[in-house]
Write a structure and sequence with these properties.
Blueprint: E1 10-13, E2 20-21, E3 31-32, E4 35-36, E5 54-55, E6 61-62, E7 67-71, E8 78-79, E9 82-83, E10 90-93, E11 98-103
Antiparallel strand pairs: 1-2, 1-11, 3-4, 5-6, 7-10, 8-9, 10-11
């Protein structure tokens, strides 16, 4: 079963040249290992998802994320009516990139819900 993603998860864009870190701003009360759990609303460019270096889809110009929304989130588990981002979730960029999670942001091997 896929695990939830928390603040400081490492993100990778298949069109970017550098990694980025997720910042959770959609909620400030539900945590795992003392880090806020990410929800589908944590997809705002330059607030939650930051540039990935240079963008290969834009001829190596500086990355300016144009993120849409997180896909492949939880089906039934929610925080504040927002689906939870999982380590298998993806976020598409209007420039053509696909953002994936390469580190879920916590060390937990299992979660207690």
């Amino acid at each position: 079963m896929s695990q939830k993603v928390t603040q400081s998860a490492q993100l990778q864009c298949d069109k970017g040249t550098k990694l980025s870190e997720l910042k959770v701003s959609s909620q400030d009360f539900s945590t795992f290992e003392d880090k806020f759990i990410a929800t589908e609303n944590d997809a705002k460019p330059n607030e939650n998802i930051f540039p990935f270096g240079n963008c290969k889809a834009k001829y190596n110009q500086s990355c300016t994320p144009q993120t849409q929304k997180w896909e492949k989130t939880t089906q039934n588990d929610e925080i504040n009516n927002q689906k939870i981002v999982l380590e298998t979730s993806e976020c598409l960029c209007k420039t053509g990139g696909k953002i994936t999670i390469i580190n879920k942001g916590h060390n937990g091997k299992t979660e207690a819900g």
